[in-house]
TrEMBL record:
Family of the protein in this entry: Belongs to the universal ribosomal protein uL18 family.
Its biological purpose: This is one of the proteins that bind and probably mediate the attachment of the 5S RNA into the large ribosomal subunit, where it forms part of the central protuberance.
InterPro entries linked to this entry: Ribosomal_L18 (IPR057268), Ribosomal_uL18_bac-type (IPR004389), Ribosomal_uL18_bac/plant/anim (IPR005484)
Name of this protein: Large ribosomal subunit protein uL18
Organism name: Sphingobacterium allocomposti
Stored Pfam families: Ribosomal_L18p (PF00861)
Description of how the protein assembles with itself and partners: Part of the 50S ribosomal subunit; part of the 5S rRNA/L5/L18/L25 subcomplex. Contacts the 5S and 23S rRNAs.
Length: 117
């Protein structure tokens, strides 16, 4: 079953990425969700550079609580870093995951932090 779930997400991810690219003016906010943590990075696809990143397992992150609460805090952290780097508008890439639970919480945290998408 693990291969089927992964291949399904990869197929959905390819469909999303066909229509979604990060530009210099509006970079892509990509989300990766693992069993232990959640990761977010803001990517400029034109130059192939990661501009800002944050995760729930990084040293600068110190929030306890449920995974959903941690996701919201990661969203706020990545938004703070992005605003400091001069990024205010992004394109949200859910990376094949459903917009529900931790992914939705991260997006809401990023919006509260000042990102527009």
């Amino acid at each position: 079953m693990a291969g089927n779930k992964t291949s399904r997400r990869e197929r959905i991810k390819k469909g999303i990425r066909k229509h979604l690219t990060g530009t210099v003016e509006r970079p892509r906010l990509s989300v990766f969700r693992s069993n232990k943590g959640i990761y977010a990075q803001i990517i400029d696809d034109v130059n192939g550079k990661t501009l800002v990143s944050a995760s729930s397992i990084s040293k600068e992150f110190a929030a306890a609580g449920t995974k959903v609460e941690q996701s919201k805090a990661v969203g706020k952290l990545v938004a703070e870093k992005a605003v400091a780097a001069g990024i205010s508008k992004v394109v949200f890439d859910r990376n094949g995951y459903l917009y529900h639970g931790r992914v939705k919480s991260l997006a809401e945290g990023a919006r509260e932090g000042g990102l527009d998408f």
